[in-house]
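Supplementary notes for students who missed Thursday's class. We covered one full example, reproduced here. Read the sequence, then the structure, then the short commentary at the end.
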Amino acid sequence: MSITVTTWSLEQVSPAELRPAAEPSSEVRIVRAEVPSPEFSRFLYTHVGGDVRWTDRLALSEEQWRTAVSAPGVETWVAYENGTPAGYAELEASGEGTVEIVYFGLLPAFRGRGIGGHLLSYATARAWDWAERRPGWAPTKRVWLHTCSKDGEHAMDNYLRRGFTLFETRVEEEPEVTVPALWPAAAE
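Structure (token representation):
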């Protein structure tokens, strides 16, 4: 069985295009996870993407996760609300001045509270100042990401509100994959 998935690719080609969101009213801090941790990365990935069917990394071994999150051009930024992980953004820079927001999202309990716009604004700003923080890297000329019809209902609106513009749309058939239950009792 397959499902039809629409994927939209969006970009910014100047830091002036970033339209930051207001900061949420709650106590939210965004911190870079400076010690690559496959366990923490998998926790964020599965709990942010579980209800919207993120599956591309689920089959990775611990060592493959470690390789992915410890690559020289990868950064993970985590939003915490009152000390609790609320969501994350994973950035991946190329040597040519392009930074992709590879993964971005919030845990379900933290959606709809203004944290997502703030986190996306912060992550996009970190993509734009990559070379200032990482000597030897080319200055960022482009920040891009993709979202799809499987993502949360407010994802596309958040990207457009932050100043991203659409540059490509693809429609493809994908095999329908059953996402493992995050809580085993939920599968019963």
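Commentary. The chain has a mean pLDDT of 92. The chain has five helices and seven strands. If anything here is unclear, bring it to office hours.
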